[in-house]
């Protein structure tokens, strides 16, 4: 199988530790490739390490010890973002890499007009006058579907609805025309109708601007509409990775299956959410074997609990972390 699209960013064996010596390893051994123009979804329950992984890409974890490499394949040789001097990193953060943060309500400063905030974000990275930056900001608001963008620039954040503020955040992340947009739970704080509009907007922008996107969510329900590839995270590790249609129709890791079963469905008139029993383990005490074993109904004592399972290649482009995966994966029919 050939994939003509070039690599954009590649996480190689990335680990993230907190504590004085980085001993609390909240993320371990992450390998993740995002190609130019492709959307990859990072999915997993709360606390699985999705946000810290994206913040590591942006180098926004001042107190963490980050291991491994984060290769950026731009023009010429790849650079390791983790080793860049802070000044050079600033060209990527908010420049080549845009980010929509998980807490939208805290990302806009309530004390400044939205126009002022977009203009400042623009001038941080682009050598333009205030007047030019205002024009760019106006275009950005238009791009994200805000009516009367020129006058909206003078709004204070509280004068806008939640959905509108999220559009502003998206506009702000796009003023430097990033090659990669990281969207961390971009719709969680919004109601369902607005959520659908924002997802549509992101999809449209991704294809119009030809960006790559790392789309972070705990909601498998939206993944199918957004991503070509999925990486499922549990307890700081990737437990299954592959093409979205493959994983959604034939999940092979019991954790992925459990997450898929937890998608809300309308049964009769009641919406049921079958949540997975138990909780994500504490990073200070990861289980010795498979980290999901204590909650897994397929776990075999000893077999699953003694040694950590490796992430093994299955079908082309797919890998699974589960010693029993050959029993669960259905053969691909030609
Ligand atoms: N600054 C920090 N210092 C110490 N531990 C942290 C810090 N930030 C995150 N963690 C821990 O890292 C782990 C992963 O957190 P993270 O926020 O990445 O989860 P997540 O997958 O984004 O969850 P959610 O779906 O709730 O956003 C958690 O155990 C969390 O408590
Ligand atoms: Mg998060």
Q: How would you explain this protein's 3D organization?
A:
This protein is an alpha/beta fold and 334 residues long. The chain has a domain at 228-334. It has helices at residues 50-57, 86-92, 104-107, 114-125, 130-143, 149-152, 162-174, 192-209, 220-226, 244-249, 254-261, 325-328, and strands spanning 7-18, 24-35, 39-43, 65-72, 79-80, 97-100, 180-184, 212-217, 229-234, 237-243, 265-267, 270-272, 312-313, 319-320. The strands form three sheets. An eight-stranded mixed sheet has the order 6-7-8-3-9-10-14-13, sandwiched between helices. A four-stranded antiparallel sheet has the order 2-1-4-5, with helices on one face. Residues 268-272 have low confidence and may be disordered. Bound molecules: adenosine-5'-triphosphate and magnesium ion (MG).
């Amino acid at each position: 199988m050939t994939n003509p699209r070039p690599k954009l960013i590649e996480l190689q064996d990335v680990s993230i530790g907190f504590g004085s010596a980085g001993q609390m390893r909240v993320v371990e051994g992450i390998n993740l490739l995002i190609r130019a123009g492709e959307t990859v979804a990072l999915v997993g329950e709360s606390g699985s390490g999705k946000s810290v992984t994206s913040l590591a890409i942006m180098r926004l974890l001042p107190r963490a010890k980050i291991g491994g490499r984060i290769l950026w394949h731009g023009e010429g040789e790849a650079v390791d973002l983790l080793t860049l001097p802070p000044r050079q990193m600033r060209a990527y953060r908010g420049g080549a890499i845009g980010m929509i943060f998980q807490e939208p309500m805290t990302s806009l400063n309530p004390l400044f007009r939205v126009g002022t905030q977009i203009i400042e974000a623009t001038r941080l990275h682009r050598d333009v006058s205030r007047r030019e930056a205002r024009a760019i900001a106006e275009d950005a608001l238009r791009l994200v579907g805000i009516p009367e963008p020129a006058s909206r620039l003078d709004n204070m954040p509280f004068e806008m609805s939640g959905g509108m503020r999220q559009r502003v955040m998206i506009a702000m992340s796009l003023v430097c025309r990033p090659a990669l947009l990281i969207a961390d739970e971009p719709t969680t704080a919004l109601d369902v109708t607005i959520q659908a509009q924002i997802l549509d907007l992101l999809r449209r922008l991704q294809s119009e601007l030809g960006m790559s996107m790392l789309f972070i969510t705990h909601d498998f329900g939206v993944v199918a509409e957004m991503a070509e590839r999925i990486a499922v995270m549990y307890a700081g590790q990737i437990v299954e990775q592959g093409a979205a249609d493959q994983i959604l129709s034939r999940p092979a890791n019991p954790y992925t299956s459990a997450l898929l079963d937890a998608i809300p469905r309308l049964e009769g008139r009641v919406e049921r959410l079958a949540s997975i029993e138990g909780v994500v383990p504490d990073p200070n005490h990861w289980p010795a074997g498979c980290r999901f074993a204590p909650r897994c109904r397929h776990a075999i004592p000893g077999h699953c609990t003694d040694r950590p399972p490796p992430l093994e290649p299955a079908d082309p482009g797919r890998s699974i972390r589960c010693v029993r995966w050959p029993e669960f994966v259905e053969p691909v029919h030609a």
